[in-house]
Amino acid sequence: MNPTGSFKDRGMTVGVRVAQKVGVDRLACASTGNTSAALSAYGARGGMETLVLLPAGKVAAGKIAQASLHGARILEVDGNFDQCLDIVQDLADRGEAYLLNSLNPFRLEGQKTIGLEILERHKREEGSYPDRIVLPVGNAGNTAALYKCFRELVESGALEEDEVPKLTGVQAEGAAPMVEAIEDGTDGTRRWEDVETIATAIRIGNPVNAPKALPGIRATGGTAVAVSDEEITDAQRTLAGEGVGVEPASAASVAGLRKLRERGVVDAEEEVVCLTTGHLLKDPDAAAAAGSEPEPVPNDTDAVLEHIEEPSSVAGTVRRGASKAADSPLIPALVAGGLGIGYLLRKLRSKK
Ligand code: F0G
């Protein structure tokens, strides 16, 4: 269960608790939205002042609403996420605030639970561990946390080296420095100054956890792939057509898997878990734009019946999504991880 509707809750509950224990009184984060929603909720619960720095005009409505109602001070910066994070790091260096971005090690400790749950549930339901985990990548904190989780399991003897799932990152084409680094074989990422994508949650040009995440992708035999906004929206519709409502960044994992299967990078026999990370209601505007328009009808039963005889754009969209899902090589076999808000896992298996 993720109380604020994204996977950020898993790390934030640990990070804020530690801050409270050590007597911090002002918390701060830069955010594309979900981190700020989680920090605002946990900060409120812990009775601490909370500052969130957001890129002006680039944060989805649901996330701002959350930060607003939970009582954070929302500071809208005329810049992108990476510039917001530069400021938060300055504030932390000057001792003015406690930084709760994924540079904070306690947050990543909490996020390791995602890796544990995937392994536990997959083993229980399928009798084996998944071959691969595909996840959307922004700051690469989650990728780093999963890698740490698996490394520690191997070190403790609980997992064999060859049982570690291949960590596979997906970025939007307009914000893909990790993909670039994997393709070019470089140790670090180049900072992208201009980033753009419909998936605003991962609109990030300088992934600060790249030094921990790139080795994780490489050491597990994974890869990284960039997807277009159209491919993201298409995957979002497919998931929605199966009753799984996610925000665009979250659908990127499924879009990425599709692309890797088309390219033959992921073969038909592989057992793959796609991690989805944020609830549909986080970005109601993107959902409405990807979905269909409400249909005005007269206030009269006969007229309503007459109206529904006509082909509906609503049903059309859903049917299109469902048939596409059935035709696609991805046959969803399982929704793992519990249907906690915003944290949905889908295990996708090839059509035999
Ligand atoms: N999916 C969603 C819905 C996110 O909000 C984020 C990151 C990611 C994926 C990527 O995770 O950064 O660990 O690689 N959102 C951050 C935020 C940056 O501020 O909410 P990552």
Q: Could you characterize the architecture of this molecule?
A:
α9 (229-241) crosses α10. The chain has helices at 8-21, 34-46, 61-69, 81-93, 105-126, 141-156, 177-184, 210-219, 229-241, 248-262, 284-290, 301-309, 313-327, and strands at residues 26-30, 49-55, 73-77, 98-99, 132-136, 166-172, 224-227, 272-276, 330-336, 344-350. Mean pLDDT is 91; it is low at 321-352. It has 352 residues and is α/β, with parallel strands linked by helices. The protein has 2 domains: 8-101, 3-Layer(aba) Sandwich (Rossmann fold), CATH 3.40.50.1100; 106-285 and 321-350, Rossmann fold. It has a 6-stranded mixed β-sheet with strand order 7-6-5-8-10-9, with helices on both faces. Bound molecules: ligand F0G. Ligand F0G is lined by residues 6, 8, 31-35, 102, 136-143, 201-202, 247, 249-250, 277-278.
Shape: globular
- Give the tally of structural domains: 2
Give helix and strand order, one letter per element, not per position.
HEHEHEHEHEHEHHEHHEHHHEE
How many helical elements?
13
Question: What name is given to the CATH topology of the largest domain?
Answer: Rossmann fold
Q: Quaternary status of these chains?
A: single chain
Based on CA atoms alone, the radius of gyration comes out at 20 Å
Spatial order of the strands forming the largest sheet: 7-6-5-8-10-9
Termini separation: 33 Å
- Give average pLDDT, whole number: 91
Q: Largest sheet, if any? A: 6 strands, mixed
Strand content: 15-25%
| Unreliable spans | 321-352
Kindly state the number of beta strands: 10
What ligands can be seen in this structure?
ligand F0G
The top-level CATH class of the largest domain is Alpha Beta
CATH architecture of the largest domain: 3-Layer(aba) Sandwich
Helicity level: 40-55%
